[in-house]
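Example 356, ligand KG4.
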Amino acid sequence: MLILSIETSCDETSAAVVKDGPSTELGTSLEILSNIISSQVDFHRKYGGIVPELAARKHVEVISPVIKEAMDSAGVSFKDLSAVAITYGPGLIGSLIVGLSAAKAIAYAMDIPLIGVNHLEAHLYANFLNSPPSSPSLIKRGGNPNKVREEVSFPFISLLVSGGHTMLILVEGHGKYKVLGQTRDDAAGEAFDKVARFLKLGYPGGPIIDKLAKEGNPKAIKFTRPMIGDGYDFSFSGIKTAVVNLVNKTKDQRPKTEDLVASFQQAIVDVLVEKAIRAAEEYGCKTIALAGGVAANSCLREGMRAKAEEKGIELLVPSLILCTDNAAMVGARGYYLLKEGKPSNFDLPAVASLRL
Ligand code: KG4
Ligand code: ZN
């Protein structure tokens, strides 16, 4: 099966070609033949955040060349395709419509199935594409960690952390989710972005804080760890406000920015790690899978790795490029939907607030 997948839910225009590899006793491996990502981040930077109307227009400009590049670099033509997978929500409505229209046009013209994919599920399915070379269990099982990954075994806990969502999910099977907890206010990525904006560090905040925090002392300021021992929901707006209050109160002798962001980041990571590990233990899961843009955070990756190792839990972490928005992850979810015989109708609408 050869799937063209498209992602335009936010400010990345992406197209990928994903192919199923040989079946083993562990399942089918999925191979990424191409994964082209055109980011609008430089364009939105001057506004300090994404301007939805401009994002949609940028998608219109680049969607065709991005799809062409994905097809060319995979070395395939439209007639080789088995299906077109497309993110239909959640996301910015104007942005979603651009990708959805392109996907419908190609699927209709080639008379192949259209597969609507939930963006949140797509982030989870990045874990079905590959795993970092450091994943000992994968290497033990003889997988090629750089290219393909064998089927993940259920049940597992997924920590999905992005710009719009923070969720702990018990994944019981393909498409079978139990949301154990989610954020009551800001998403983890949103907190990074807001703190960076407040400190005038630039946009998007996550990667900037990640880098700057490496120069700082994470123990310099003791921020509270909100709700750390309390269920599986999250609340991050309090830490963000604590940063703002501290800076406003200590105007002249404000702590070093590096220490400030390192301490802020550590507080968020501590809460995420603690809850993910507790969920895995309580629900008897041997695996935790990270997903979403914030899963690219080096402190979270290292913190989760260390704690998972200590507890004997397998940790799956998508490669950096598969954590943030990309079309290959959409193809991965699309592949399983196609295999289960669940294509979409051609009147599939874009759904801005689609839930898991
Ligand atoms: O998954 P994603 O690309 O888009 C959404 O679906 O939201 O996530 C984007 C979010 C942004 O808030 C960005 O600041 C954050 O992920 N992010 C990071 C890092 N890289 C991206 N946050 C912390 N550390 C990073 N290295
Ligand atoms: Zn995303």
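Summary: The beta strands are 2-7, 12-24, 27-39, 83-89, 114-118, 156-161, 166-173, 176-182, 287-291, 314-316.
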